User: Fold these one by one.
Assistant:
Number 1:
Amino acid sequence: MAAPWVLFYAVCVLRVVLATVYFQEEFLDGERWRNRWVQSTNDSQFGHFRLSSGKFYGHKEKDKGLQTTQNGRFYAISARFKPFSNKGKTLVIQYTVKHEQKMDCGGGYIKIFPSDVDQKNLSGKSQYYVMFGPDICGFDIKKVHVILHFKNQYHSNKKPIRCKVDGFTHLYTLILRPDLTYEVKIDGQVIESGSIEYDWNLTSLKKMEKSSAESKDWEQEEEDKLQCICAETSHRSACLKVRSGTIFDNFLITDDEEYAENFGKATWGETKDPEREMDAIQAKEEVKKAREEDEEDLLMGRFDGRENNFRRFHKRDEL
Ligand SMILES: *[C@@H]1O[C@H](CO)[C@@H](O)[C@H](O)[C@H]1NC(C)=O
Ligand SMILES: *[C@@H]1O[C@H](CO)[C@@H](O)[C@H](O)[C@H]1NC(C)=O
Ligand SMILES: *[C@@H]1O[C@H](CO)[C@@H](O)[C@H](O)[C@H]1NC(C)=O
């Protein structure tokens, strides 16, 4: 009579590992990503993406992602997935972004749209549910945006969250839970967490939760038919100091925090150290080359090479 117990045990184990993955994209099948991603033609000036792992990387193939190719452009590209509702469930949005060109101004964020969005006509004005990711402009703006659409309004996070500004790949994770708590992680570390109600100042959310007559979930109302993900950079028209080279990769939308953590470890976690090693080797080579050029200049009686070297050595430092 032991059989039912065995069965019960098996069911329990299955429940633990049952994650729903709404969207996952690693760009591992060459140019076939073009069948899944749609470039917006709303503005003929929108920049184009290509697949690249950049000038330095941890793994030439695995680190290939969508890279911006033109300076001073806006970008809008999107991919579809099956509509889902996160009612009563956790929502995890995760991806990696690398500003290897040393971003002085531009965004590296993604947006989740309603399922009826016209992908070819996508623009900065298209309505979205969630916007998440880093935004850098000069010395003043170095922040992670978490903008939630609620009751026909966009609400920004009131707590400032600082983003990474170096040239390496970073893993950004947003977790929104049905108990109205959240976490923002960078590189797997929690850097902000708390109550969605307080940190977005959603007083109406508080009222809504308390009134039993109107106990419709925030998630239900706001994220009923999430369907489209978009990688967008440099939305701020006032900032056109922008350089190409940003790489987006390892997109994941799921209802399972543990799955996201493991996916992060299996992707970014595996290539982050080799990426830094390759960068260090390149930097060493550049220093060596610069020194040789300096010596040559010295021998020839020229001293005007210094400015270039200064720029080279500071390429990937923090702003
Ligand atoms: C681009 O989007 C904007 C804002 O939604 C709209 O006003 C404009 O007509 C669109 N342009 C084209 C060519 O569809
Ligand atoms: C694009 O969307 C805007 C509204 O956001 C609309 O005015 C415009 O006609 C659309 N363009 C096309 C080509 O569908
Ligand atoms: C939060 O919302 C309340 C009511 O809408 C407003 O009075 C208050 O100034 C807001 N606080 C912040 C920090 O935005």
Number 2:
Amino acid sequence: MESNGGVDDARPSPPSRRPAFAALAGLLAAAAGLASAELAAVAVRPESSPVTAVGEAVIDRTPPAVKEWAIATFGTADKLALQCGIVLLLALYAAGLGLLTLARRVPGRPLAAAGALAFGAVGAAAAWSRPDAQPSDAGPSLLGSVIAAVVLLVLARRIPGTTPPGDADDAPATGRRAFLVAAATATAASAGGGALARTLRGAETAQAEAARTAVRLPAPDSPAPPVSRGAQLSVRGLDPYFTPNDRFYRIDTALSVPHVDAEAWQLTIHGRGVPQPLTLSYRDLLRREIVERDITLTCVSNTVGGNLVGNARWLGVRLADLLREAGVRPPSEGGPADQLVARSVDGMTLGSPVETVMDGRDALLAIGMNGEPLPFEHGFPVRMVVPGLYGYVSACKWLQDLELTRFSDFDAYWIRGGWSPDGPIKTQSRIDTPGHSATVQPGTVPVAGVAWAQHTGIDRVEVRVDDGPWHEAELAEEASVDTWRQWVWQWEATAGTHVLEVRATDRTGETQTAEESGAVPDGATGHHRVTVHVS
Ligand SMILES: Nc1nc2c(c(=O)[nH]1)N[C@H]1C(S)=C(S)[C@@H](COP(=O)(O)O)O[C@H]1N2
Ligand SMILES: [Mo]
């Protein structure tokens, strides 16, 4: 009688179990490959990790509409979702390669090994396709795929019952024990390598953290105008006037947040119509005239009622001063360049109109955010902030280069993806409380939120219930035309289900259109509406 083949090492496993061993071999090979790639990426740089490189390449190629969907679905966890997706796909692919080693009609093992190397080539190509690519970025993917191929071959030969008869002498002992020993060794090595990579990366990050903590921000030569108490309404559920840094929205394409060394950082200002190009260090910047301004930042991907908007107190230098010093003239004064292209250390490019940046508004090279050096996530050591322009055409984080050019000569990153080169922020308003589908008691209910029209100012906010007449809301004091403005309206709520709707009018007299349009190509329109149950 045939016995349960698992007990006797010499005997083949029941054929039904071999696929499970083979799939496991594929998964372990992938894990070994990833762990060695991560370890190599510590030596090269974080962006060269295959998961990061493939992820960023995917982000680069994602159409704006899909990006919008991802942001709407996953919020700021969109990056985590993408990375999980990549690892999941890799796992499926790896299990498939494992199964391929069992093939009889084709040379399964060499093909599977080639499949592992092919994944390395994809990783390398992804890393090289990044705008800030360096030749060495391909290293971790290639090394990882070689390790994966070797581990796969070693494990495949030990899958119980796979060695053809007659071949037994020169083949390693097949059978469950031999496979498990090899599998356990691979698992331990991968886990060890992965943990080591984590520790080393953690140490690097800690060093950058320490350098950031050591930064002493200068006191502003021109402090922000005082914010009167009347600018902050006390209504429960209303977003605070200043958005704390740890609650500030984050939008960028960086799967691995750049940890720039401020001591080594330099900014260059150059290009068309720049008679005296400038190079500045972080210290140079800190020694200049420092201004402090409150500015509300908004992402073009913000949906009506969304939270990709936040208000902060920024510390920095006026960009227009630096441009003048370099000899730049805006187009209205005969300057030949109409576009200022900001480049970040991760290769991102954002293009702003030179005219806007130099028209007297507080366009800043920011070094501080709400009283501390810029957090790494928000662009340490230096970023741009321009009141009135969406982030994608102005707010370059991890800035390292400013080039004067023409819109007709260069399309910045988001423009190539289908977004409009012009990105003035659209006047918008949002109901913060009551929340959508909240239940409130009948009687007086404060309806409150924020409205923004940066660098123009908000003049009126109106609320209506169930498409009834518009009621003018009470506006908080205006702290600055560059920041959002809170508003509140006391609603006499009656039992039933109601729809609240808000609209704002800016200082040009323009009232927000009710017409709904998506974020692509230059910002969403429409009125924010929430449904509220009163009982
Ligand atoms: N280097 C870099 N800077 C960037 C981006 C980016 O992807 N990379 N995204 C821009 C966009 S679209 C926005 S809305 C703002 C968001 O800034 P925050 O993350 O500090 O809120 O940063 C801008 N600056
Ligand atoms: Mo954005």
